[in-house]
Amino acid sequence: MSKLDITNTINTFAMLGKQLRTPSQELISIIETERQHNAWFTADSVLNAILATGEMLNEADLTTWLNKYSFVNEGGKNVGLVLAGNIPLVGFHDVLSVLVSGNFALIKASTQDSRLIRHVLEMLVKIDGTFTNRFKFVERLEGFDAIIATGSNNTSRYFEYYFGKVPNIIRKNRNSIAVLTGNETAEELHELGHDIFDYFGLGCRNVSKLLVPEGYKFDFLYESIEDYKTIIHHHKYSNNYDYNKSIYLVNRDDHFDNGFLMIKRDSKLTSPLSVVFYDTYTSLQDAEQQLAAQADQLQCIVSNAPINTQNQLVSFGESQHPKLWDYADGVDTMAFLVGLS
Asked: Any idea which GO molecular function terms this record carries (predicted)?
């Protein structure tokens, strides 16, 4: 059993990354028209996703990532992929992992995000035709040897029922949280705005909750994110804002409001769109204990505080810029795929 040479694979995906970082006119056309198919996929959101994916696919990171694993030169397995569609290209990393591990991808794309992933894979095939027969888009998954499925807590039960008899990774709801100390600069809090508002807050890596010290004042945070106020002009976001605001007013729920983002105290991690929940801590040790108690529900933690956590810790503004080895739910997808051989 010989070891698979991944040099060509690295070069191919590095070239794909370069093309994504410098979009062609054809790709620009798709970026500008995607909103017609999904109102959340504005040109800015799609471009951000394209560029972030391009940045991720650089030769140095691809080499670092893939050199951690031992790929063998033998026939791959059929891996069924159930992709999410909450933000643009959210399922690309799963497709990438299946392809570079030498397996075959059976892709059930989300109706919310099918055009982008198809076009990116068409770009890949133009770079290296050997990938032509390494993936297939399907309406119904069958003939699979393993499954990677991403969905909600409700759909995960369906996935476990239908796919539980084969090797699988089944992902549930996750949320991301930011831990603030009160010593953040205006620039850091402005970057936090990206973690909150990029992709309208629809991603599992978007910050949906703040953990702040007791007595924290939100005025400086609101001042620092004022530049993001144009988000309220998006009709779907605005509808969510108006609806949640009316609920809070009718129920007389205490909350903060700056006209485009409400902040409300709540123990839950998952906040409604246009709302960020918050809770308080008495010390960083207390904050760490709270994070540990919710570790299996967290995707990543945004903070510059010196905290110990088993979850991925990222700097302000970086939650939507994961590295290749920053696996969803902390599960090593590549190790799973390599283990199928």
From this structure: acyl-CoA dehydrogenase activity
Which uninterrupted H or E stretch holds 264?
Answer: strand 262-265
- Most distant CA pair in the chain, distance: 68
Looking at domain 175-314, its CATH class is alpha beta
Residue 187 has pLDDT above 50, yes or no: yes
Where in the chain is CATH 3.40.605.10? Answer: 7-172
Options 3.40.605.10, 3.30.420.40, 3.90.180.10, 3.40.1400.10; CATH for 7-172 is: 3.40.605.10
Across the strands, what pairs with 143?
Answer: none
Q: What is the 3-state secondary structure (H, E, C) of 176-227?
A: EEEECCCCCCHHHHHHHHHHHHHHHHCCCCCEEEEEEECCCCCHHHHHHCHH
**φ/ψ (deg, to 5) at 300:** -150, 165
Which pTM does this prediction carry? Answer: 0.94
pLDDT at residue 3 greater than cutoff 60? no
Cβ atoms 331, 311 nearer than 8 A: no
Q: Give me the pLDDT at residue 110, please.
A: 94
Q: What is the dihedral of CA 220, 222, 224, 225, to 10 degrees?
A: 170
What is the rounded (10 degree) CA torsion for 115, 116, 118, 121?
Answer: 170
| Residues 257-316 pLDDT 10s | 999 999 999 999 999 999 999 999 999 999 999 999 999 999 999 999 999 998 899 999
